[in-house]
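Reading group handout, session on sequence-to-structure problems. Before we discuss, look at one worked example. The prompt was deliberately terse, the way you'd type it at a terminal:

> structure tRNA (cytidine/uridine-2'-O-)-methyltransferase TrmJ

The input record follows.
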Amino acid sequence: MKAPSLLGRVRVVLSRTSHPGNIGGAARAMKTMGLGQLVLVAPHEFPSEIATARASGATDVLASARVVDTLEVALEGTVFAAAMTARRRELSLPMQWSREAADTVAGYAAQGDVALVFGNETSGLSNEELALCQLPVMIPTNPDYSSLNLAAAVQILCYEMRLRLSASAPAPDGLAAPASFEEVEGFYGHLESAMIRSGFHDPSNPRRLMARIRRLFGRIRLEREEVGILRGILSALDRKVD
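And the output record:
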């Protein structure tokens, strides 16, 4: 019996989509490449007859789509998230081009659910949303005309993922379990609380401290055991402060 494809672990997340036609177009792009997990973060309009028409038969992807209020909820249960961006951001993690990024994401798909995150058609992802993901990704478009339709961007990334994950593959040897989204966010919350309690961090004058810390730890892509160690250190320091 053939094992299921790792493509089933890839979720496409569309944040604050303004036009329902792009949701339908994204669903069509996903189905042609064998992806089925669609998560919509606060869409302007869904469900929609326009989305259904643009899906061109990929109505099963639309029917099973989850609608959530925040990107944090959309990323629950993932071990890695790649965020599509049209420009480089200050204090963001090191960027990868889409083809290289697909290799990175595929490696994590062997260990759990992963996410491809796309922002609003006009404004893209906010800096706060980008900070929730481990890898900023750019598509190498024509610099003189870089405007790329949302559904087209989804198609490109889904195609790249299909090239790498259409056949099942065992988890690579020697890789420790990556920390889940919830574990990493729990660590950041614990660290921020500890810094406030110690007097090191003044939330009324943040100086972009947490953004810099996210960038620092994001570069090393924390493992589950490492998060446990770090939180154990913080708990010991908390007891000293008390």
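Points for discussion. First: Confidence is low (pLDDT under 50) at residues 168-172. Second: The two ends are 58 Å apart (CA to CA).
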